[in-house]
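FORM 12-B: Structure-to-Sequence Request
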């Protein structure tokens, strides 16, 4: 049986392009959110939090035809935000100057964006050996050295997106499931001893990303996903 695609909208937010809206976005945050922002030590991190939170509220308000000031988040056990009394599903990830925000009507999702920063002196292999599943480490270490960084982040973003789909944070060990490590092949959940049923009800996708970034999304869906990209400009 052919299933109709699920629609997923992904907003690309270049933080430096909207930082002139910082003061306005602050007015959308409640006292708890402002207090959280003020706990950041550096202005850069504080401002990025405000922009990301404000942009989320702007986009959700547009979807719900309401004001950003009326968007109030509830939080799952591990801190994943959601809207009470509404079926809209969403998730945001940011790295350096970019944030990605995924939203759809009712399908749970997790999204992850990473900047492919240079490795430490031992490269990505040592990190993969420590945190990834043995099969993933084997695949990664078999690649040429100059291909390992992108493969590492290809794997990492899929795993983070899958964890965020479930709202578990890093309480779900990264070696309890495996994904496709090859960045030139489609994203895919290969095994999951943690929740075997997910193999038939979850999908992973690579996302378009700026140079030096990798991004992935995980969705709880048996249907194929139609991804539409949008560039977030001052709202």
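FORM 12-B RESPONSE
SEQUENCE OUT:
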């Amino acid at each position: 049986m052919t299933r109709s695609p699920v629609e997923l909208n992904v907003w690309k937010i270049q933080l430096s392009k909207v930082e002139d809206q910082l003061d306005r976005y602050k007015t959308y945050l409640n006292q708890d959110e402002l207090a959280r922002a003020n706990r950041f030590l550096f202005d850069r991190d504080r401002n990025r939090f405000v922009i990301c939170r404000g942009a989320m509220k702007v986009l959700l308000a547009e979807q719900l035809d309401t004001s950003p000031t009326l968007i109030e988040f509830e939080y799952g056990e591990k801190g994943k935000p959601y809207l009470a009394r509404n079926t809209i599903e969403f998730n945001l990830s940011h790295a350096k100057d970019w944030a990605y925000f995924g939203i759809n009507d009712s399908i749970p999702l997790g999204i992850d964006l990473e900047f492919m920063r240079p490795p430490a002196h031992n490269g990505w292999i040592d990190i993969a050996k420590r945190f990834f599943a043995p099969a993933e480490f084997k695949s990664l270490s078999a690649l040429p050295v100059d291909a390992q960084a992108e493969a590492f982040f290809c794997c990492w973003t899929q795993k983070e997106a899958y964890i965020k789909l479930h709202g578990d944070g890093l309480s779900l060990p990264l070696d309890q499931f495996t994904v496709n490590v090859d960045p030139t092949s489609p994203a895919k959940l290969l095994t999951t001893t943690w929740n075997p049923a997910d193999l038939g009800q979850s999908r992973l996708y690579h996302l378009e990303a700026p140079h030096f970034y990798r991004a992935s999304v995980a969705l709880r869906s048996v249907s194929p996903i139609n991804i539409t990209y949008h560039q977030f400009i001052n709202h």
